[in-house]
Write a structure and sequence with these properties.
It is a single chain. The chain contains 7 helices and 8 strands. It has about 240 residues and is of the alpha+beta class. The protein folds into 2 domains: about 70 residues, Arc Repressor Mutant, subunit A (Orthogonal Bundle); about 170 residues, YebC, transcriptional regulation domain (Alpha-Beta Plaits, 2-Layer Sandwich). Helix 1 packs antiparallel against helix 2, helix 1 runs parallel beside helix 3 and helix 4 runs antiparallel to helix 7. The chain is globular.
């Protein structure tokens, strides 16, 4: 059928694999949130938030429903959140957030993805001290001054508020996440978050100039992100697109 068909077929397979990983990832997140409290989003705010995130990511309703029903049924999977820190090509530093029911498997897979691509796994604290752990909310509909007013009235501790092309971004200490989210949703019931979560922000971003190191870095990040247990990957490299 020709080269074009094979390329198209490969692209479709890659897309399907990514969708499958997203489904599994959100299924585990929703299951954990449901198991952590009452498996009802109206009575469990953590579950409600994760369902909202899943819907925004176009996760099918049956995936969400199955995860909640699984939690209701008393399934015994025990998921844990774990972070890995590492160093890669071009003075890069990475933080890998995982959700896993098998720590040994996840440790081995993350370590392999890093070391096979020119990096090394670090010990706890070896990388995070170079990043700021921040709650981040990005949304449209109001100005930065209006956002600041909401934060002041709710007595929220905020590190910075940015306004760019109609988008407000609020950065705050990670422990303020719940308080700020409640303040925003109370005042703006129809708010739709473009960003909503806890992130790691590098204090000293660097740029990789060497093309070979840049290719190795991209390869390493892509290998990590393909792992089923990986939720998010943060790094200190600026000005690049990881997809090639």
């Amino acid at each position: 059928m020709g080269r074009a068909y094979e390329v198209r077929k490969a692209a479709m397979a890659k897309t399907a694999a990514r969708k499958g990983k997203e489904y599994a990832r959100f299924g585990a997140i929703i299951y954990k949130a449901a198991k952590s409290g009452i498996p009802d989003p109206e009575l469990n705010q953590a579950l409600k938030k994760e369902i909202e995130r899943a819907k925004k990511a176009d996760i099918p309703a049956d995936i969400i429903k199955r995860a909640i029903e699984k939690a209701k049924g008393g399934a015994t999977e025990d998921y844990h959140t774990v972070n890995f820190e590492g160093f890669g090509p071009g003075n890069s530093m990475i933080i890998v957030e995982c959700l896993t029911d098998n720590m040994n498997r996840t440790n081995t897979e993350v370590r392999t993805a890093i070391t096979r691509n020119g990096g090394k796994l670090g010990v706890s604290g070896s990388v995070t001290h170079m990043f700021l752990n921040r709650a981040l909310f990005s949304f449209e509909g109001i100005t930065d001054e209006e956002a600041l007013e909401i934060m002041v009235e709710a007595d929220c501790d905020v590190a910075d508020i940015e306004y760019d092309d109609g988008m407000v971004s609020i950065y705050a200490p990670s422990e303020e996440y719940g308080k700020i989210r409640d303040a925003l949703t109370d005042r703006l019931p129809e708010i739709e978050f473009l960003e909503d979560g806890i992130v790691w922000i590098p204090q000293m971003p660097v740029k990789i100039e060497d093309e070979e190191e840049l290719r190795a870095f991209r390869k390493m990040i892509n290998a990590i992100e393909e792992l089923d247990d990986v939720q998010k990957v943060f790094h200190n490299i600026e000005g690049i697109e990881l997809e090639e």
